[in-house]
Amino acid sequence: MGKVILTGDRPTGRLHLGHYVGSLRQRVELQNSGEFDKIFIMIADAQALTDNADNPEKIRRNIIEVALDYLSCGLDPAKATIFIQSQIPELCELAFYYMNLVTVARLERNPTVKAEIQLRNFGKSIPVGFYTYPISQASDITAFRATTVPVGEDQEPMIEQTREIVHKFNSVYGETLVEPEILLPKNAACLRLPGTDGKAKMSKSLGNCIYLSDTAEDVRKKVMSMYTDPDHIRIEDPGKIEGNCVFTYLDAFSCCDHFAEFLPDYSSLEELKAHYRRGGLGDVKVKKFLNSVLQEVLEPIRARRKEYERDIEGVYEMLRRGCDVARAEAAETLAMVKRAMKIDYFDDTEMIRRQSEMYRNAQ
Ligand code: TRP
What separation in Å is there between the alpha carbon of 77 and the centre of ligand 1? Predict the structure, then answer.
């Protein structure tokens, strides 16, 4: 059995650095590693609608933004199938059958869903579709017989839920579905990139994001006003690295070559951190370095985006072709599922023949 990747993002906004280090960068590496037989990247619009039912225009507008972000990061439609979730009706059908294999109590325990319910102030008015999105996510993953799901840490409960559904399905109906594995970023700083304000997570609703499509000037301004160590007042003061997001970003983005290129007085991040801790190193110098590093990462992404922005029709055409490929794949899995569940009546000519013989004999 081949190795298959399925992953995706909700199109609720443009993608930012948190998405980049949490998943996008790794996806491109995996894509180019040649180790995978198939790669599916999904724009999860149906899932985005589970808590944006009253704002379809927002989701619609962001399809192209996410597609442009994907392409500009280096996802290549020749190697990866990029598609839109809602265009694959087979996914809904699978989810409907998986719902029979999951209890309400089990959904209630999902920590990511719990946190999201709090964040969105749903109280008792939780949309059923939202509540059950982990089941729909299990359909996304299993429909493509994915072995590997590269995602951020917050998606761990979804993959766990998927694995449980796979076990349950296979034990009730016979070996049919493939059990997926999560693939997290290796670097701890990438697991959850803080916002520029130092808050736990980069998130559009908190307004603390650096977007992949921000201009060079926007990025510079955001970096120069980033949260550091509030007790590091004069340059001579000793500074703290922990909770200082400028250093967390350097952990996530910088490498030795960046020092040689932009800050040759230091040979490594460890050396820079040690100086900051001792005192005598100002925030501005560290921020300028971070800005150079980020600009180097973002410049080629911005340039590629500009290219693709000149051919929006071509991008939609690419998505349309991706949907066709994805749909054929999901249809194959759905057929296997229906056979296993014994709801493939018209394909079972043997059963029809046997029954007709039985009734004929009884006449
Ligand atoms: N839940 C993911 C997110 O919020 C998006 C998503 C939907 C997804 N279906 C998926 C991710 C399947 C991986 C696999 O970003």
Answer: 19
As a whole number of angstroms, the distance between CA 137 and CA 179 comes to 13
Q: How far is the CA of 100 from the centre of ligand 1 (A)?
A: 21
Q: Which of 16, 86, 116, 137 to mutate to test the pocket of ligand 1 (most atoms within 8 A of CB)?
A: 137
Q: Atom 8 of ligand 1 has which residue's CA nearest to it?
A: 8
Per-residue pLDDT reduced to its tens digit, 5-35:
999 999 999 999 999 999 999 999 999 999 9
Gyration radius of the chain's alpha carbons: 24
- 10 Å CB burial of residue 236 (0-12, 13-18, 19+) is exposed
Compute the distance from residue 67 Cα to the ligand 1 centre, in Å.
15
296 Cα: distance to centroid of ligand 1 (angstroms): 29
Q: Which helix (H) or strand (E) holds 181?
A: strand 181-183
What tokens were used for 13? Answer: 């906004």
Nearest CA to ligand 1 atom 2: 9
Is 275 exposed, middle or buried, given 0-12, 13-18 or 19+ CB atoms closer than 10 A?
A: middle
* H/E element, 260: helix 256-262
pLDDT of residue 1: 67
Token pair in block for residue 333: 């899995």
Instruction: List the residue whose alpha carbon is closest to atom 9 of ligand 1.
Output: 137
Indicate whether 282 pLDDT > 70: yes
Q: For residue 183, which phi and psi values (nearest 5 degrees)? A: -125, 110
* CB neighbours of residue 323 within 10 Å: 20
Distance CA 197, CA 207 (A): 9
Distance CA 344, CA 321 (A): 28
